[in-house]
Request: fold
Amino acid sequence: MKGIVFLGPPGAGKGTQAKKIVEKFGIPQISTGDMLREAVKEGTELGKKAKEFMDAGALVPDEVVIGIVRERLAKPDCEKGFILDGFPRTIPQAEALDEVVRELGKAINYVIALEVDDSELIERLSGRRTCRSCGAMYHVKFNPPAKEGVCDKCGGELFQRDDDREETIKNRLKTYKEQTAPLIDYYRERGNFYAIEASGDIDEIFSRIEAILNQ
Ligand code: AP5
Ligand code: MG
Ligand code: ZN
Reply:
């Protein structure tokens, strides 16, 4: 069982590294951000409710995201493990997660915090591009596609996320510091906690993560 939680500020590389774990270890990535963006795109009730919080760089209410994760973790593909990318983000979410994994007979075996300086986060987020078709992630400067605006993997169109505008980025960083950073102490006290330096080469960062997961 590999139950993994990625902690880290916006732009730390949670999504980028989670996709590499999916490839290497064959366990699913559970990104609450991706799931909420999907709901916004489909125009569901959930999506309508979530959009204002997301556009403001604030968190969607706990009970909403807890419900989503509870349902997702119960799916059969989570049997051998899962990577939670962007959940939990508050202490009540972390407490709910403990309860859900206990109910489902699963465990959180690794909590990995990705550490990057603020100035780099802003640069990463403002240059991020995502594939509309397959979700692959790029950066105009740090990880550019071979052809501008086109996904290397599937040929899909690359777009910029609505919340990657400067004002919203600042709010997201503030929200992280106020509401999510306290989870570092929460998990540090409970063991299975690993903090890694997450700037520099994407593959080198992944090697650090792999070393932890192979313990
Ligand atoms: P979410 O989608 O989770 O966004 P986030 O936490 O702000 O994180 P990001 O996805 O922006 O960053 P990332 O760490 O995945 O970095 P990435 O790999 O893309 O949440 C969005 C919103 O949804 C929230 O604001 C909130 O409203 C709501 N929400 C979601 N979950 C919630 C929850 N649990 N509770 C309540 N609300 C919730 O990398 C970023 C860029 O950097 C990319 O361009 C990438 O190519 C580049 N990059 C990656 N690694 C490197 C490297 N080593 N060097 C240089 N560039 C790099
Ligand atoms: Mg992400
Ligand atoms: Zn693609």
About this structure: The longest helix spans residues 166-180. Residues 131, 133-134, 136, 151, 153-154, 156 surround zinc ion (ligand 3) (CB under 6 Å). The two ends are 12 Å apart (CA to CA).
